[in-house]
């Protein structure tokens, strides 16, 4: 009995210690994130069990939606904060509270509510139901969920969307969809790979549309959620209410439409909904990671509807856009943190798979610096972003650099290792040395050996010279930028 009592006291003490650590962590995150985000997403977290053997700590939230949202956006920050507070915590797992995993019942609310009323509680996205809203930005229970009106993230607006050559068409089309005048093309179909900004634009359309149409009713969800609601309504004999509610919206937005593949009945209902809304002049926006014609398992009639308006591509962000996104994001931090220009350049050049990883890397770096009191530096970025950097780095070789530079300047490949000192040969060779240092992990002596056995001091001179020329000579800077784009593409 005494052993059990001691074990119980130890468990109680561990729980108290975890609670105390969480109080400190939560307070720090409140200062970092601000009162609103903290109260909406961090405050509801409950500290679960900690497994000392695996170093895994469980954090619980009341719903699957909130658990996924926090995991997607704050997992790195939570993990870092806990590791700093308790070195024995190696993994942080965000999940739904074990007692609340059941799917909530579908409640379509009172169909007699006027369109300009706030969303009834049965339609809150936190519970996984259909999201409906009017222009009431006061919000009723929606604001308490941290998603603003009708489940939209308040931070994802056109103001916070940074445009460049790769996404300007999609952004302009999205703004037109939300404008007062009727758009020329309907529906709008946004096509982009993961993390390139299509979901951001969907949220931005919702915010802007409510600003220009204060009494409008809008619906936003993923295709997967649409299917879940459809199946629930079908099982509960509420299809008439489901259809009536769905077709009563002024703006319909469905994300990740590729996940509706193969669901014949749901496809048919979506098809009829599109036809009904288009006939009444309503607005529709869809987003997917592939073009409509590439959606396998989707019947031809639905493909026809999805592609009949405007299909706007969002291409991967180039380095200029990635740099602009980082600078824009940095300016929005509530607690200013100095990030040197070489760190911004390093992140923009290295994290090139998608914008979400790029912003996540910056967030993680700044969070670590603020929580530990360290200054942001290139060394800190390389140390703390190892996983992200490794996933994004494409192994560019010196041979590839030499070949690309020779093609660009139209010189023979043998000149990279030759002893000729003609300016038409020396300058391309110096550019290639500079790029080899910037784009590869090779040391100065290693680079020198690839250029005809030259001494490391020659490589250092070339790197410094090209760095200097880029600041003074617009043509040289343009040449290097063009070569960087070619090599990183």
TrEMBL record:
<dbReference type="InterPro" id="IPR010921">
    <property type="entry name" value="Trp_repressor/repl_initiator"/>
</dbReference>
<dbReference type="InterPro" id="IPR018312">
    <property type="entry name" value="Chromosome_initiator_DnaA_CS"/>
</dbReference>
<keyword id="KW-0238">DNA-binding</keyword>
<feature type="binding site">
    <location>
        <position position="195"/>
    </location>
    <ligand>
        <name>ATP</name>
    </ligand>
</feature>
<comment type="subunit">
    <text>Oligomerizes as a right-handed, spiral filament on DNA at oriC.</text>
</comment>
<dbReference type="Pfam" id="PF08299">
    <property type="entry name" value="Bac_DnaA_C"/>
</dbReference>
<keyword id="KW-0067">ATP-binding</keyword>
<feature type="domain" description="AAA+ ATPase">
    <location>
        <begin position="184"/>
        <end position="313"/>
    </location>
</feature>
<dbReference type="InterPro" id="IPR003593">
    <property type="entry name" value="AAA+_ATPase"/>
</dbReference>
<dbReference type="Pfam" id="PF00308">
    <property type="entry name" value="Bac_DnaA"/>
</dbReference>
<comment type="similarity">
    <text>Belongs to the DnaA family.</text>
</comment>
<keyword id="KW-0963">Cytoplasm</keyword>
<keyword id="KW-0235">DNA replication</keyword>
<feature type="region of interest" description="Domain I, interacts with DnaA modulators">
    <location>
        <begin position="1"/>
        <end position="95"/>
    </location>
</feature>
<keyword id="KW-0547">Nucleotide-binding</keyword>
<dbReference type="InterPro" id="IPR013317">
    <property type="entry name" value="DnaA_dom"/>
</dbReference>
<dbReference type="InterPro" id="IPR038454">
    <property type="entry name" value="DnaA_N_sf"/>
</dbReference>
<feature type="region of interest" description="Domain IV, binds dsDNA">
    <location>
        <begin position="370"/>
        <end position="489"/>
    </location>
</feature>
<dbReference type="Pfam" id="PF11638">
    <property type="entry name" value="DnaA_N"/>
</dbReference>
<dbReference type="InterPro" id="IPR027417">
    <property type="entry name" value="P-loop_NTPase"/>
</dbReference>
<feature type="domain" description="Chromosomal replication initiator DnaA C-terminal">
    <location>
        <begin position="397"/>
        <end position="466"/>
    </location>
</feature>
<keyword id="KW-0446">Lipid-binding</keyword>
<feature type="binding site">
    <location>
        <position position="197"/>
    </location>
    <ligand>
        <name>ATP</name>
    </ligand>
</feature>
<dbReference type="InterPro" id="IPR024633">
    <property type="entry name" value="DnaA_N_dom"/>
</dbReference>
<dbReference type="InterPro" id="IPR020591">
    <property type="entry name" value="Chromosome_initiator_DnaA-like"/>
</dbReference>
<comment type="function">
    <text>Plays an essential role in the initiation and regulation of chromosomal replication. ATP-DnaA binds to the origin of replication (oriC) to initiate formation of the DNA replication initiation complex once per cell cycle. Binds the DnaA box (a 9 base pair repeat at the origin) and separates the double-stranded (ds)DNA. Forms a right-handed helical filament on oriC DNA; dsDNA binds to the exterior of the filament while single-stranded (ss)DNA is stabiized in the filament's interior.</text>
</comment>
<dbReference type="InterPro" id="IPR001957">
    <property type="entry name" value="Chromosome_initiator_DnaA"/>
</dbReference>
<protein>
    <recommendedName>
        <fullName>Chromosomal replication initiator protein DnaA</fullName>
    </recommendedName>
</protein>
<dbReference type="InterPro" id="IPR013159">
    <property type="entry name" value="DnaA_C"/>
</dbReference>
<feature type="binding site">
    <location>
        <position position="198"/>
    </location>
    <ligand>
        <name>ATP</name>
    </ligand>
</feature>
<feature type="binding site">
    <location>
        <position position="199"/>
    </location>
    <ligand>
        <name>ATP</name>
    </ligand>
</feature>
């Amino acid at each position: 009995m005494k052993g059990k009592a001691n074990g119980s006291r130890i468990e109680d003490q561990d729980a108290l210690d975890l609670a105390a650590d969480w109080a400190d962590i939560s307070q720090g995150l409140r200062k970092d994130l601000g009162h609103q985000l903290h109260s909406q997403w961090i405050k509801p977290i409950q500290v679960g069990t900690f497994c000392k053997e695996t170093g895994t700590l469980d954090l619980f939230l009341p719903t699957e939606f909130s658990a996924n949202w926090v995991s997607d956006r704050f997992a790195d920050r939570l993990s870092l904060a806990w590791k700093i507070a308790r070195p024995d915590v190696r993994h942080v797992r965000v999940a739904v509270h074990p007692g609340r995993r059941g799917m909530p019942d579908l409640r379509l609310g009172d169909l007699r509510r006027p369109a300009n009323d706030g969303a009834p509680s049965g339609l809150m996205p936190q519970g996984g139901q259909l999201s409906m809203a009017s222009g009431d930005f006061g919000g009723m229970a929606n604001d308490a969920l941290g998603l603003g009106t009708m489940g939209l993230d308040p931070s994802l607006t056109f103001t916070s969307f940074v445009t460049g050559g790769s996404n300007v068409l999609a952004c302009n089309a999205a703004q037109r969809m939300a404008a007062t005048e009727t758009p020329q093309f309907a529906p709008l179909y946004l096509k982009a790979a993961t993390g390139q900004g299509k979901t951001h634009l969907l949220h931005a359309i919702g915010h802007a549309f409510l600003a220009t149409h204060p009494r409008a009713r809008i619906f936003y969800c993923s295709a997967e959620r649409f299917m879940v609601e459809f199946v629930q309504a079908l099982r509960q004999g509420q299809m008439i209410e489901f259809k009536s509610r769905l077709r009563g919206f002024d703006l319909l937005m469905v994300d990740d439409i590729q996940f509706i593949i193969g669901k014949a009945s749901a496809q048919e209902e979506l098809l009829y909904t599109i036809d009904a809304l288009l006939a009444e002049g309503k607005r529709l926006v869809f987003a997917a990671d592939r073009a409509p014609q590439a959606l396998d398992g989707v019947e031809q009639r639905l493909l026809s509807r999805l592609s009949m308006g405007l299909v706007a591509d969002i291409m991967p962000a180039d380095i200029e856009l990635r740099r602009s996104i980082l600078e824009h994001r940095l300016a929005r931090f509530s607690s200013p943190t100095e990030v040197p220009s070489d760190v911004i350049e390093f992140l923009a050049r290295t994290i090139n798979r998608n914008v979400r990883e790029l912003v996540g890397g910056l967030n993680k770096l700044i969070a670590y610096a603020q929580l530990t009191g360290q200054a942001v530096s290139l060394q800190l970025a390389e140390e703390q972003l190892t996983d992200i950097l490794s996933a994004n780095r494409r192994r560019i070789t010196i041979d590839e650099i030499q070949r690309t530079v020779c093609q660009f300047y139209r010189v023979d490949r043998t000149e990279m290792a030759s002893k000729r000192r003609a300016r038409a040969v020396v300058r391309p060779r110096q550019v290639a040395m500079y790029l080899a240092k910037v784009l590869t992990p090779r040391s100065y002596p290693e680079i020198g050996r690839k250029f005809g056995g030259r001494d490391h001091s020659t490589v250092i001179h070339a790197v410094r010279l090209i760095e200097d020329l880029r600041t003074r000579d617009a043509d040289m800077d343009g040449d290097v930028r063009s070569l960087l784009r070619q090599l990183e593409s």
